[in-house]
Amino acid sequence: MMPAEPRDELLFSYGTLQLERVQLESFGRLLDGEDDAMPGYRQALIEITDPEVLRQSGERFHPIVVPSGDVADQVTGKVFRVTAAELAAADRYEVADYQRVAVQLKSGKRAWVYIKA
C-alpha cells in the first residue's frame, strides 16, 4: 500500500465545497474542517450554468466573495487540510467566475480560497 499524499495545503470554503456530496465527488473523501473566517470580504451570489457543477452541487446559485475594503466585514466558513491533488480537483470544480488566491484567515492561518475573478 502506498503512503497517503501529505495534506499540506489549507483550503478555506464558505460555500459548496463544504457539501458532503461535492467533497465525495471532488476529493473521494469527506474533509475534516475547522470553523474560521475571512476578514475584509463580503459574500454575494452568482448563477452557475456549468452542467457538471450544477449536477454535483444541486444548487443553481453559489456564494462568491469579493474584497469589501472594510476589516469589520467577514465571511465565515471552514478551513480544510488538503493534498496538492485535492487542491487541483477543487480548481477543476470551480467555474471561471472564481479565482484561487491566498488569504490570511481570522485564526492567523494562510489558506487558499476562491474569490470573484
Could you give the topology of this structure?
Layout: E1 9-13, H1 20-27, E2 33-39, E3 41-47, H2 51-57, E4 61-67, E5 74-82, H3 84-93, E6 98-104, E7 110-116
Antiparallel strand pairs: 1-5, 2-5, 3-4, 6-7
Give the tags.
Hypothetical upf0131 protein ytfp; two-stranded antiparallel sheet; about 120 residues; 7 strands; single chain; alpha+beta; globular
Average pLDDT, all residues: 94
**Largest sheet data:** 3 strands, antiparallel
> Termini separation (Å)?
40 Å
**Unreliable stretches:** none
CATH structural architecture: Roll
Mind telling me the C-alpha Rg? 14 Å
| Large-scale geometry | globular
CATH topology: Hypothetical upf0131 protein ytfp
Q: Strand content of the residues, in percent?
A: 35-45%
- Number of separate structural domains: 1
Number of strands: 7
Fraction of helical residues: 10-25%
Record the strand order, biggest sheet. 1-5-2
Describe it.
With 117 residues, the protein is α+β, with helices and mostly antiparallel strands. The chain has a single domain, classed as Gamma-glutamyl cyclotransferase-like (Hypothetical upf0131 protein ytfp, Roll), CATH 3.10.490.10. It is built from three helices and seven strands, in the order E-H-E-E-H-E-E-H-E-E. The strands form three sheets. It has a three-stranded antiparallel sheet. Strands 3-4 form a two-stranded antiparallel sheet. A two-stranded antiparallel sheet has the order 6-7. A hairpin with a 5-residue loop joins strand 6 and strand 7. The model has no long low-confidence stretch (mean pLDDT 94).
